[in-house]
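User: Small ask, check this?
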Amino acid sequence: MRDTRESRLLLVLLIAIAFALITVDIRGGQDSPVDGARQAAATVFGPIENGVSSAVDPVGNAVAAIRDSGDRHDRVAQLEHDNAALKAKLGSDDRNRSRLKQLDKMIRVAGEGQYGIKGAEVIAIGAAQGFSWTVTIDVGAREGIERDMTVLNGDGLVGRVTTVGPDTATVLLANDPDFTVGTRMESSDELGFASGQGDSPLRVELLNAKAKIKKGDRLVTFGSQADKPFVPGVPVGVVSRVDPSGGDLTRTVYVKPFVSFTRLDILGVVVTAPKSDPRDTVLPAKPKPTPTPTVTVTVTPSANAPVDGQQ
């Protein structure tokens, strides 16, 4: 069409008619008078739209795939986070099971020794440069803790309380060089004094230089006057070495403690002493020795073996 005045007027007229139809269609809604014409146009142009759509869809799908890949990455990251949290929870559950086991053992020891205990948790250890073996527990004067109370766990003697604050207390461990406790030998009742030696076994000086002691014998606490700082009957350790008697007034033995002082967690402070000395009853049952298998070899003579007196 040539650009003339008539063509311009026709274009303006068509645009005006189009706007008028759009307005009527919008206001009419579902009852629009041009609905029939729109449906006819859809019938004519629908296949063309579908063809165009099918041609464009791969591009749209690719864009959606890129967008979804980001979503998948986020989901993978979330799954990895959830797995890490689950592993941490399982680790926490394992720790809780370990702590429950420690608590059960300590309650058994307290029950057998008739000790009234106050449960505690180790919250700090002594300074490394301090030449002393101590831990801090999360109970103090508010819970009835006093200086010179015995501290134990499910394995045996841990130490004694040396300093008490309102909510915490310091425990001097039995392997500290300044630590000394009276001991009694299992069965023989031989008395002595055990001293800490840090990472080395406890050193025990027996009062009887002629005492018959052997490796594997066990010791418990002898107890103190008024049960402070030590109550009687708390397991101490097992004899690991015996020095030969050299005519001294005492005899020296070395004892491996029942307690591992580098793995302390749940402890108990003895706030009520037993009414009577439990002596050896708190010690666990001795492990039964593993029997050594005996092999008997029987020799059966063969049929062709020579009889006595024959060549």
User: Anything to note?
Assistant: The first helix runs from residue 5 to 28. Residues 41-50, 52-60, 62-67 have pLDDT under 50 and may be disordered. The longest strand covers residues 116-125.
